[in-house]
Amino acid sequence: MDRLPPTRPQGLNQFVEPDVKSLAEWRAAVAHAQNNLIAGRCLIDKTLAITGERELVRTLWPIRFAATVVQIGSLGLLTAGKWRLTSPKPITSIPLRYEYAYGGECRINEDDPRAKRLRKKYRLTAAQAEVHAASTPGASSGPAALAAFECNAVGRGYAQPWYTRALGIHRLPAPQIEPQDSPFSVAKFMKMRNAKKPSAHEVSTVLAGFGVRAKVHPERRALAGTVDQCFATSEAWLPKDFDFAIWNAAPVDQQTEFLRGDECIELTNMCAPGSAGARQNSAGDTFLKLQLPGHSSTLLVRMQNGTMFFHPMKIDTLIVEPEERKISVVWRAVLGKTSEIRAVEANLHKEFEAEFMRQLDSELDKMDISPLMEADTPPMKEHHG
What we know:
The protein has 385 residues and is an alpha+beta fold. The protein has three domains: 20-30 and 38-44 and 252-366, no CATH class; 48-104 and 149-209, no CATH class; 213-248, no CATH class. 22% of the residues lie in helices and 21% in strands. The protein has nine helices and 17 strands. The protein has helices at 20-35, 61-73, 126-135, 161-167, 186-194, 200-204, 218-221, 229-232, 351-366; strands spanning 48-50, 55-58, 83-85, 102-103, 105-109, 143-148, 156-157, 171-173, 177-179, 264-268, 278-280, 286-291, 296-303, 308-312, 314-321, 326-332, 341-349. Strand 11 and strand 12 (286-291) form a beta hairpin. It is flat, with a radius of gyration of 27 Å.
């Protein structure tokens, strides 16, 4: 939540502290604001649905036979009946990791006796097998067949028909973390297992989480640009269509503009009841409200010719770990690659200095420092996780 905090009083100039009475009144106003949410702009609002442990269970063969007849009779429009989803078991907590969200990998190794049950069309080609052998040197056996849900290969609930058939699987763990407005179902399971390349919308209806996106995530990987023979033989550092947003590891719905460093964070049911600073309502929900300390950070850049200037740093990443009672704030700055820089000093500013540096930051944004250094590095993107 973006807050509008009480303005800190100023002294006679930016290097003089205000009087004691003004500071005391300001601190009282800040304390009141921390206990009474100030109307502001919501930057991120994300909710997940959590269930207890449950399974996808294959139905008995007479039911599967009837379902096959219905599927053929409806020209494939009806596919339910071959699997069922069990009721979730009670739970009190669950790690918010992608291992409990939808996804998974289907792999059968060459040395597995059940690999003989695979049809040729499901097996890896010789070229594909060679690539896997090269990527895992020393492995006792490579995969005979391999498929994965690219957006989350460590999850649960994804299983190709050839995989369950070859291994004789009748039970699969179902996802326990899902989008709030899109509950997981057998129909979604069947649709995703038969989809060769699900669309971004189809993925969004089954996959949800708070963790980072792996570099191999299709949406993130696409930002790397076009890596073809033309690029490989050129002297370019990056493809022309390379997008620096590829370094935003957070899901898109957890990315926002640069933070000031004094925002308010509200977490619901993301820490155990009785945790320090948390409170509960009559419905049993646990709330934890935090506020960033309001620090700012800058670089003091010293050039070979003796010139010095402040270079602003931006909050690149915010990591909140309520169970660990820890918040990590990562500041980042981009400087051009040049030998003209002699030294760089990082500075963290608190309270009075922070407000002054924010004002200086806004002024520096208007200045052109290109005469001082050759900036070969593209500007920072305006959205970060």
